[in-house]
Please model this.
Amino acid sequence: MTGKRVRHILDTIAGMYPDAHCELHHSNPFELTIAVLLSAQCTDETVNKVTADLFRKYNKPEDYIAVSLEELEQDIRRIGLFRNKAKNIQSLCRLLLEKYDGEIPRKHEQLVELPGVGRKTANVVMSNAFDVPAIAVDTHVERVSKRLGLADPDDTVLQVEQKLMKKVPREEWTQTHHRLIFFGRYHCKAQNPGCGVCPLLDKCGEGKLRLKTVVKRKSIK
Model:
């Protein structure tokens, strides 16, 4: 894919979602880390509903380990995989207190060592909490990147991230991450994407095929 084509894609999505941002509610790096951990296989909307009460009850790592695992599980039970996530949260908080004086570390290699924190979560925290350019690849970013040819269909999540890092200027990594999420969440959805009104349809082989199939079905009827 040429640099000109990549630029066109980035500018088009930027025009659609100029104010794209992290939709997880948080007021500090610690809350953001907890929120992103909870967001795995769960919508941001649900996470925000749960953390509205959670962050009032728990302000720091000490608070999360002061209660029983069962109590924390009940506090986040509306979240998918809540039992495993509650266990990870308490383990993460213990490690923060043991190694980092209760603070979220600022280095990527330290973040990914925290229980429940993978590469995607670490990238989100680095970019949104510490203003370090990063591209976190979630399901939306992966789907959009592959549909638009920014990555190949069989690429792993890590390969998608690496290709985006090469094609997108470093100073645009964080904003591009947010815009790709918005584009995937509100327009290029997994089911029923807005292909018929998509300004990037000519870049999307899957979308053109989908529209062609719809037209064919209508003609048969």
